[in-house]
Specification:
This protein has 169 residues and is α+β, with helices and mostly antiparallel strands. Helices cover 47% and strands 22% of the residues. A hairpin with a 2-residue loop joins strand 6 and strand 7. Helix 1 crosses helix 3. The radius of gyration is 21 Å and the shape is elongated.
């Protein structure tokens, strides 16, 4: 495929937060949750094993801690995403994404970054956007609402033709 797909991305807090959450959930958040749940269960079972009388509070507290920590983690991800959108000077530039059969390029007024497809980890299509993983826990996203006219079909055709791990709908 010789054709390039040129996309003018837009960045808002909601979609950037959703993309960030999905990237983190696929790696760190699952391990973090599993670790936290294991600690809570060990604590709960040790209460039963070591004490003759177990009160209801010592049973309920571990189950309240887990959701509280998860909610706080999600809140801090949202806050850092909002700060990144508001304070990153690159996001205020005129940015375009250029995709062809050789690379995925981010081009702004003061920067130009090429990610060659051979170095891309994977591409995942979600309901509202495409995630292009440039590292195991770092991804760029392309909102489907940023695609004009036939760009969705062109992008899907391009991504399907690439020899990378992909999960397209």
């Amino acid at each position: 495929m010789e054709k390039e797909v040129i996309i003018k991305p837009s960045f808002d807090v909601k979609s950037t937060f959703n993309a960030s959450l999905l990237v983190l959930m696929s790696t760190k958040l699952k391990l973090y949750s599993l670790f936290l749940l294991t600690i809570i269960l060990i604590n709960l079972f040790s209460n039963f094993a070591l004490e003759e009388k177990t009160d209801i509070i010592s049973i309920i507290i571990p189950f309240l801690i887990f959701p509280t920590i998860i909610l706080l983690s999600v809140f801090f991800i949202y806050r850092s995403t909002k700060k990144q959108i508001e304070e990153n000077p690159r996001l205020k530039e005129n940015i375009v994404y250029i995709l062809n059969d050789e690379y995925f390029q981010e081009k702004g007024d003061s920067f130009e970054i090429k990610h060659f497809w051979k170095n891309i980890i994977k591409v995942v299509e979600k309901k509202d956007f495409f995630l292009i993983y440039i590292a195991k826990n770092k991804a760029n996203f392309i909102r489907k609402s940023d695609l004009k006219n036939t760009q969705y079909d062109e992008l899907k055709e391009l991504l399907s033709s690439l020899n990378i791990k992909k999960s397209l709908k």
